[in-house]
UniProtKB/TrEMBL annotation:
The protein's name: Kinetochore protein SPC25
Functional note: Acts as a component of the essential kinetochore-associated NDC80 complex, which is required for chromosome segregation and spindle checkpoint activity.
Disordered: region residues: 257-281
UniProt KW Secreted keyword: no
Domain of life: Eukaryota
InterPro entries xrefs: Spc25, Spc25_C
């Protein structure tokens, strides 16, 4: 029994050795197999590394191509954006031109209407101008006749007219003894009424004559009557007095019998002319 017990570890050791040998053989085979497969694995790894390096080169090239493609895409996008902006600007310009054309059409229509209106106005003005020219020629003829009549009065009757604050009528050839002696009177027309500013010499009944003048508006008849009154006064020995009555003279128009007179302007207007001379009955 003890022997069996003593052999048992030995047997066990042998069994373990057998197992170890078998295991060693297996591991040796694995090592041999691994050693045999290592060159091929190394070659495979080298091939894989080479492929990886080639792939890295291809990847870098693809990245470069991608960057170039991106740059080209950006350029194309910028060009497209510019073209679109240019097209929009062209559309806006076309719209503005169309609007301008429509505005010009309306302006042309307005100008045509105005031209027709102005043509009508010019025609009317031409007719009015023709009539005005005819009236002016007629007025010139009348003024010539008036000037001729005044010249005749001055030459034959010794009659002169001066315009200023009023109208001064001066007569010569009144006094037979002294034909150059001057008899005069000055009247003013304002507010549709005549008033006497001066009479040299003073005449009786002059107020009634002024009232008659305002009633009849017959200035020339009034002048003839005053001349006759001056002749009567001269026949009675009434002579004009020396006076400083010297009115500012200019061209005036009376609304009574139309009368235009031109004469020189005097600087010595007497202050006493600021008031009307009292009329004598």
């Amino acid at each position: 029994m003890e022997r069996e017990t003593e052999q048992s570890p030995k047997t066990k050791m042998e069994s373990l050795r057998t197992i170890c040998d078998r295991e060693f053989s297996i591991q040796q085979q694995k090592i041999d197999s691994l050693t045999a497969s290592f060159p091929s694995s190394l070659n495979s790894i080298k091939s894989l590394a080479l492929d990886t390096a080639q792939n890295h080169a291809k990847l870098a090239k693809l990245k470069a191509n991608l960057r170039e493609a991106e740059d080209e895409f950006v350029k194309v996008l910028v060009a497209k954006t510019r073209k679109e902006a240019k097209q929009m600007a062209t559309r806006d310009s076309i719209s503005a031109v169309k609007a301008r054309v429509e505005e010009l059409k309306r302006t042309v229509q307005v100008q045509r209407s105005r031209r027709e209106e102005y043509g009508t106005i010019i025609s009317r003005q031409s007719l009015a101008l023709s009539k005005t020219e005819e009236d002016a020629e007629h007025e010139i003829e009348e003024n010539g006749e008036i000037q001729e009549a005044i010249s005749w009065y001055n030459r034959v009757l010794g009659f002169q007219i001066e315009g200023g604050r009023g109208v001064k009528f001066t007569f010569n050839d009144i006094n037979i003894k002294n034909p150059k002696e001057e008899y005069s009177f000055t009247i003013c027309h304002a507010n549709d009424a005549y008033s006497l500013l001066d009479c040299n010499p003073n005449l009786n009944g002059i107020k009634d004559l002024i009232n008659e003048l305002n009633r009849t508006n017959d200035l020339f008849g009034f002048v003839r009557t005053i001349r006759e009154k001056f002749q009567e006064a001269a026949a009675l020995g009434l002579q004009p007095q020396s006076t400083t009555f010297d009115q500012d003279c200019s061209t005036i128009s009376l609304s009574g019998p139309a009368l235009s007179v031109s004469s020189n302007r005097s600087e010595s207007s007497a202050k006493k002319n600021e008031h009307h001379i009292p009329l004598q009955d």
